[in-house]
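for the recovery benchmark. tokens below, seq after
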């Protein structure tokens, strides 16, 4: 009886989380959903290929890729929902802040810069193609140099709030 009660409770929680994630996504624009989905490297690579175009991703509600995009965006929503202990308003706020940060820091460009030379940057980057290509090339040169020299670093904070800075030389 206990096991079936636990299974039922777990199933109910899973449905509740899924519904809350869908609710969060309903407040996002198609462009925000696209940017959220691109936090998945698998989706980022797929959406950067010629099979999914910029226009379809940002503006078309009937795109065949919408289901895949939403599935990947749901993963980001779920992470934020869990981090905010089920509070959908806070999760939505944090998710939008993360999307904005990823956009400002050109995370997609950084993640793609070491792939093939002709790899496009994020379809949502602002500016002209020459500017995007310059960013792509700059990131590629800087990262390649540091990777070849073996200079890697991680910077952040521990769960206790202490500064963390690790350098591998």
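predicted aa per position
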């Amino acid at each position: 009886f206990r096991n079936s009660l636990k299974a039922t409770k777990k199933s109910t929680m899973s449905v509740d989380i899924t519904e809350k994630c869908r609710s969060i996504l309903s407040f996002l624009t198609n462009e925000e959903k696209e940017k959220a989905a691109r936090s998945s490297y698998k989706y980022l690579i797929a959406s950067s290929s010629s099979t999914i175009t910029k226009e379809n991703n940002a503006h078309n509600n009937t795109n065949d890729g919408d289901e895949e995009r939403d599935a990947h965006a749901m993963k980001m929503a779920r992470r934020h929902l869990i981090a905010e202990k089920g509070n959908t308003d806070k999760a939505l706020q944090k998710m939008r802040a993360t999307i904005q940060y990823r956009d400002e820091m050109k995370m997609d460009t950084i993640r793609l810069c070491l792939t093939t030379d002709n790899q496009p940057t994020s379809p949502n980057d602002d500016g002209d193609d020459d500017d995007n290509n310059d960013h792509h090339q700059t990131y590629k040169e800087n990262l390649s140099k540091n990777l070849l020299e073996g200079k890697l670093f991680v910077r952040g904070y521990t769960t206790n709030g202490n500064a963390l800075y690790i350098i591998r030389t």
